[in-house]
Amino acid sequence: MDINYELYKVFYYVASSLSFSEAAKHLFISQSAVSQSIKVLEKKLNTSLFVRSTKRVQLTPEGETLLRHVEPAMNLIKRGESQLLEASSLGGGQLRIGASDTICRYFLVRYLSEFHHAHPGVHIKVTNQTSTRCVDLLENGQVDLIVTNYPNSQLSTGSHVQEIHTFRDSFIASRQFYPQLAERPVSLRELLHYPLLMLDRKSSTSEFLHALFQQHQLDLVPEIELGSNDLLLDLANIGLGIAFVPDFCRPRQESLFSVQLQEELPCRHLVMVHNPQLPLTPAAREFMELLERP
Q1: Which residue numbers delimit the HTH lysR-type domain (predicted)?
Q2: Residue 11 and which of 47, 109, 143, 293 are 20 to 30 A apart at CA?
Q3: Quick one: pLDDT band at residue 186, thresholds 50, 70, 90?
Q4: Using an 8 Å Cβ cutoff, are 93 and 82 in contact?
């Protein structure tokens, strides 16, 4: 089937904005031209891609399927254009990174600062998602690389994974509300008698902790699940429970302490990942070399 690329381009911008008028502004064409292009594409594909009403535009299931294929292709084309414009120079261009809030704040900031001072002309774009969702950003071509917790169930064997940091996790409790936990080592089984605070189930940290308890034949039912380690620590500080966080964001407040466990928790890693099937920009390659340095 021979379909003009411009039709897919129009489809992409309508599907991304769910607005014919917004797509027209972005493409610098009339709204009627956008509408006509979509009609031609629907006719060639023999299917409806959008549900149109007076108030809004929605994708049909077929439109959602097409978008899942068109979006990575559009991102790849944009990246190719960007690389050509950079002309193998770090005097400009863009560095696109995916990472969780915690990894950005407690690990990446100093590297981003160093890179920015060395290459001020490069535009840095950081997209914050959980470590598992960052993999989707990478596979869709929305970022050049990701920095994520490992193990990570979403990482495929086709991704290039390189370890850059090793860490352990800790259970953090308030001295005021849980002084008894500071007196002796505590077992994982005993911890189940206390309210546990942890990241939401879609995170790699949550996957790791649930798997750890299952290995000890224990059923973990957290009291609170949130999307921020900093907020978990805030709640632990006021006595709402015991927070599970990586040691690189362990608090310095004297009011909080790390619970000593009878069992030794396995190490986890921070890894940087890129898709070897997609070309790396000079900026991404330079930043990856920076992360590799001891």
Answers
A1: 1-60
A2: 143
A3: very high
A4: yes
Q: What number of CA atoms fall less than 13 Å from residue 18's CA on the CB side?
A: 11
Q: What is the DSSP letter of 88?
A: T
Closest by alpha carbon to 261, among 168, 167, 170, 166? 170
DSSP symbol at 173? E
H helix intervals, the chain = 5-17, 20-27, 31-45, 61-86, 101-103, 109-118, 131-139, 188-191, 204-215, 229-237, 282-292
Cis peptide before 195 (omega within 30 of 0): no
Round to whole Å and give the CA distance between 238 and 196. 13
Measured distance CA(155)–CA(269) in Å, rounded? 14
Helix axes 131-139, 204-215, angle to 10 degrees: 130
Q: Residues 27, 6: contact at Cβ < 8 Å?
A: no
The tokens describing 278, both together, are: 């997609």
CB of 108 closer than 8 Å to CB of 97: yes
Q: Judge contact between 271 and 150, C-beta under 8 A.
A: yes
Report residue 30: phi and psi, to 5°: -75, 160
pLDDT digits (tens, 9 = 90+) for 26-74: 999 999 999 999 999 999 999 999 998 877 899 999 999 999 999 999 9
Name 240's Cβ contacts closer than 8 Å, sequence gap at least 6: 195, 197, 223, 224
Measuring CA to CA, how many Å separate 214 from each of 189, 200, 219? 11, 17, 6
Q: For 110-160, what is each residue's pLDDT tens digit?
A: 999 999 999 888 889 999 998 888 999 998 889 999 999 998 888 876 568
The pair of three-digit structure tokens given for residue 131, joined into one six-digit string:
């470590």
- Give the SS3 label for residue 243: strand
256 DSSP β-pair partners: 174
Q: Tell me the β-bridge partners of 279.
A: none
Please determine, for residue 185, whether its predicted confidence score (pLDDT) is greater than 50.
yes
